[in-house]
Design brief:
This protein is mainly alpha-helical and 238 residues long. It is built from four helices and four strands; from the N terminus they run H-H-H-E-E-E-E-H. A hairpin with a 2-residue loop joins strand 1 (132-133) and strand 2.
Amino acid sequence: MANVSVNTNVGAMIALQNLNKTNSQMETTQNRINTGLKVASAKDDGATFAIAQSQRASVASLDAVKDSLSRATSSVDVAMSAGESISDMLTQMKEKALSASDTSLDTTSRSALNTDFEALRDQLTKTMQNAKFNGINLIDGSLPGLEALANADGTSRLTVAAQDLSLGGAIVTLGTTASFSTSSSAGALLTTIDNSINNVSAALAKMGTSSKSLEAHSTFIGKLQELDHGWYRQSRGR
């Protein structure tokens, strides 16, 4: 009887080739099922896979940019909220000083107004010091500003200038120990408070412009993400 070997039997070899092909196809199909991608690896289509991976890297980079812009926007929003509170407090302080400048006011009433004035002054400083997001404070004079990523290469930045709203500074010119005990000393504070209010309003306007720029760029990055996601899905056959 002739010996039959798988290596020499043509029918067996064809059957083996078909089996290997079927197994390979099943492996590819299962891989596509698992990943949800038509081109799941470089073995499927090297050129398409390379393009897809490049798009994938771009998508991941844009995610980092979006996160950076989001953090910067939050820092500015916190600073603006605190700045608005400071503006409100300065307005209340002006009211106290104006009332105390009335020469017909008795000493006890003026003293009570000064107590309120000093409480507002101290609260202003606390508000300024606590205007932090993620460790960033844009209104306490500790930083010149902040930068946010603007592109996926990391070569471009959006800069937001800080606005120092601390007492005795260039914006809030009212001193850290400001108070009054007479009608004249109360009246002398009015111009300084008015200037501080106007300066804070201007500072808030600048921060508002920065916030809008960050939000607009974030929207733009979001659109780029959608395009890159689309290209990625198309190139991978999802």
